[in-house]
Structures are given as C-alpha cells and as structure tokens.
Amino acid sequence: xxxxxxxxxxxxxxxxxxxxxxxxxxxxxxxxxxxxxxxxxxxxxxxxxxxxxxxxxxxxxxxxxxxxxxxxxxxxxxxxxxxxxxxxxxxxxxxxxxxxxxxxxxxxxxxxxxxxxxxxxxxxxxxxxxxxxxxxxxxxxxxxxxxxxxxxxxxxxxxxxxxxxxxxxxxxxxxxxxxxxxxxxxxxxxxxxxxxxxxxxxxxxxxxxxxxxxxxxxxxxxxxxxxxxxxxxxxxxxxxxxxxxxxxxxxxxxxxxxxx
Length: 260
Known about the structure:
The chain is an alpha+beta fold.
C-alpha cells in the first residue's frame, strides 16, 4: 500500500516537471502568445492647407483689386488721315512725346480703368481723357492683355503754323472730339505690388471745329477779303463754316504699375 502511494507520487511529480520545462512542446503549448507588434504610427501632421496666394495660378502674386500706372512714350497723330470737311488747318499731322496716368479695378482677368494722356505734338497739345477695358491672360508673372480704349480729346493750344495766317489769334480756334480704338500690351510683375510693361494703342479720332469768331467786329466777307490771297480760302472755312475730320493716332508707351 505504501509502495503504491509512493509510486503514484513520483509519477505525478514527473508529470509536473514535464509541464514546467519551458523547452518542451507541452510547455510551449501552454505558454501565453507573444504580444502582437504594432506598426509604427506616422507622426502627427496637420493637413496641408493652401492659402489664397497658392490657389491662384500667378506664382504666388495673389489677387489684385486696384491698380495705378504712369506711362511715357511717343505719339503720332493725323487729324484728317481718314476724312476732312472744312477743317481749315494748314497742318494736321505731327508727332511728339506722350505722358499719361491711369487707375482702375481688376476683377480676376478683367480690368476697368480711367486714363488721362497728353501728347506734345508740333501742332499743339493733344489731350485724351477716357476709359478702357482689357482682358488679361496672366501666366506666372507675365500678363499679356488686349482691349479697347475711348473717350474725349481736344487740342489745348494750337501752334500758329497749324492754323496759318488766316486768323491773328489762334486761341480762338477750338478743336475737340472723341476717340476710340484697340489697345494691346504686356506686363511683367516684379512683385505683387509692382510691374513694368509696354503697350500700344491705336485711336480713331473724330474731330470737330466750330466757326472761328471774326476779329474786329468785321463780317465774314470782310475778314475773308482782308486775308492774304493765299489764305482767303482757308479764312472762308474758318470764319464761315464749322469743320470736321476723322483721323488716326498711334501711341506706343512703357509704363510702371502699382497694384493692391
């Protein structure tokens, strides 16, 4: 009886030893599974944001709302190149330097603006005051455009050689009208706020001249008779008729722009 109990105890102890050995297959079956390795998490990063400058296709220049520019160039005008009727001037075409200033608003690819320009012609100063509209195609920092410009024009003071000797005082000769025509140019943006560029406009001029006041209280016929023989036909047109003409003016310029 005692021997049987001892044998059973030794068998139980041997079984426990087998289970306890880590190298045995049975022990390996009973060992808890190794923890699963987690994949490394990427560092937290904020979602990429795109600001207004990056959303536009203008190389970070951003949106533009208001512009101003000043230009300088050279203009040519022929007041009767297309037609004339009793204009009564000895000289109707000349060229000279031009200066101007413009300002306006920009709505994405469209600009609307106002402009004043003075062309220092040999016949006198040709002033142009008007408006323009242009369509822009900006790529990177290069901004080509084309559009239309028009407004009111007048000659501030006529040179005496322009009218001739039919009248003694050329300040009494008033020439004014309107102009309209295409414009084309290109700008290069140095930065968001500054640009340089060139453009050219071709304006069709429609000029009118009211009759000139007869000097000295004379009648028209007396004033014509008192004029030198070579100027009597001109005197008749100046004193007796109103005049009109259609011409053309071309002005290429360079300009500096400021943008907001």
